[in-house]
Please model this.
Amino acid sequence: MINSLRGKVTAIGADSIVLDVSGFGLEVFVTKSLLTSGVAIGEELSCLAYLQISDAGLSLFGFSSERERALFMELLQVKTMGGKLSITLLRQLGTEEILQAIYSGNAGLLGVKGLGPKRAERICFELQDKLTKKFAGLQEGHAEGFTEASLDVTVSDALSGLGFSQSESARAISMAKASAATDAGWTEENLLKAALAVLQRR
Model:
């Protein structure tokens, strides 16, 4: 089993990246957090991975955390959910957004392109109890993480509207948080200002 990958990014697509790993150009279908983590062509990237073997051939999937990969593996267990559809869900929504939707049983929050309402309801029905037990602290411990993830997306969208790329926005947000006090109470307004200050310095 392929557990992780490390290589130079040679191409970035809408839903995948190509990694040069020891001379092999590997297409890796990636999640939203990995695709917006500031990855750039020519830079080295490390990620967790999963290799799926099916009738359609081999498919490689990349993740930024073990929690993300664990959720992907659970989605694969849902009837009619293949690897491509599962990674599409993780690319269009953040991990915590998906977990909160499943926990609350709100299938409407899983409404992304390619995933119909019946399939979304099946995900909630089949995984609600299972994920609540498996992902410790889902009800209480990750509400803050869910809010933070949503905040980052909102600020990133605002920066994109100002003409900055997704990678520039992700880096600026990360650098703004890293340079601030650990107890900084982020809001959309002050995180946007801090990220803009980082971009202006660069």
Q: What stands out?
A: The radius of gyration is 18 Å. Residues 107 and 121 are 5 Å apart (CA to CA).
